[in-house]
Amino acid sequence: MTTQLSWDRAGAGEPVLLLHGIGTTREDFTILRPALEAEYDVLAVDLPGHGDSPALSERPTIGAITDAIEAGVDALGL
To answer: Whole-prediction pTM value?
Structure first.
């Protein structure tokens, strides 16, 4: 089962994926996002178990987190 992560998407152009650090949320990029959104399709995600995203049902390894993000990017059509 794939974990449905919480995303924000705004802007247009080449996609830019913003990934926050462990223990924080996509809100880390609040000040930076308007400038990026003027030129790019900006995608900001809450990593599994952070912000509005549920925790993974499996151990949160780098591979499992990457798989969850990749599934989300695929679901967004990128």
So the answer is: 0.88
